[in-house]
Amino acid sequence: MDDRIYNVAIIGYGGMGSYHGQLMESEPQVAVIGVHDIVEYRMELAKAGGHKAYPSLDAVLDDESVDVVLIATPNDVHKEIAIKALQAGKHVICEKPVTITSSDFMDIVEVANQKNRVFTVHQNRRWDEDFRIAKEIIEKKTLGELFHLESRVQGANGIPGDWRQLKAYGGGMLLDWGVHLLDQLLLITDSPIESVAATLSYVLGTEVDDGFTSYIKFKDGLTAFIEVGTTNYVKLPRWYIKGTEGTAVIKDWDLSGEIITRNPEVAHIEPKPIQAGQGLTKTMAPPSEESTLTLPIEKPAPAAQTFYTNFVSVIEGKTEPAVKNEEVHRVLVLIEMIFETAETKSVIHRSI
Ligand code: NAD
Q1: 72 Cβ inside 6 Å of ligand 1
Q2: If you measure from the C-alpha of residue 132 to the centroid of ligand 1, how many angstroms do you get, rounded to a whole number?
Q3: What are phi and psi of 10, to 5 degrees?
Q4: ipTM for the complex?
Q5: Cβ of 221 below 6 Å from ligand 1
């Protein structure tokens, strides 16, 4: 029997909505059949791309041939669209950040459960190769026991000049990029969080944060430094990972970087002092070449399922969602803690 194809309507056909359209072209079991956007020009683009242009959300929901609603609007309207679509019996994929608060998210999940429909969030950066490499290095204990990691994205172009600069639309970099980096972080360890300290940055004078730095401690002793910046003319590496036996750096999405570990075959070699500035140091001298191993950063094997194939398998009851709603909820609670710690200028000790 041929696999069933699920018809998708995209709500919000801007940058990300149209990107979903492109991505789904190579997906065997999902097909975009139509689009709804509140801006006429975007509807014209959709028509030019061969999609039906629905005049309203209700028109999408009334169309029984639509199986899936994909929400790619600005963040403030995700909730109302998601709830309407679920109530109309559609399965829903929603862009990140799914909602602006964790309680709004639970309202959606409640309706999805009542209606027995699949609701999932497009946390696509779980499929990023840099993240999958970092996770594999940690899981395989290539660096021994993990005790600290730093994960950053930094640009110099400010906040893109639209709704992302406005609070009412759920703008700001913590919600925009923070949600990806924190989502990745919480997949790296099973440990509960012990405390969070953070600062939001307002260098550009917008009403929303143009970046943030956060320091997160886990109960198992792991510490993490998560940072997003939009005013960084020189950027720091995407990942810096420290274990008891070595250190890894993944510089960028191009997967450049290095992994250096202790060589277990060689006993400790006392470093020779080096000239450093106006002094000598042995502490900060590089480890001897014989006592360390330099390992390549290897591209991970292709993921077993794409986001969309997983979504279809979940609808068909064949598998668990790759992005689980309880994971999405935990990330939103962490984001709320970061807003709170930044506002109160205090460290929050709370287990989540
Ligand atoms: P965008 O401004 O380019 O597009 C948003 C579109 O939604 C616009 O065409 C706008 O006219 C339309 N719109 C606004 N309100 C609407 C409504 N009520 N009904 C129908 N259409 C409406 O924004 P974008 O960059 O595409 O971001 C959209 C969503 O995708 C956001 O939630 C954003 O965070 C997310 N996003 C995710 C990723 C990712 O990698 N997962 C990347 C970029 C954006």
Answers
A1: yes
A2: 26
A3: -100, 125
A4: 0.99
A5: no
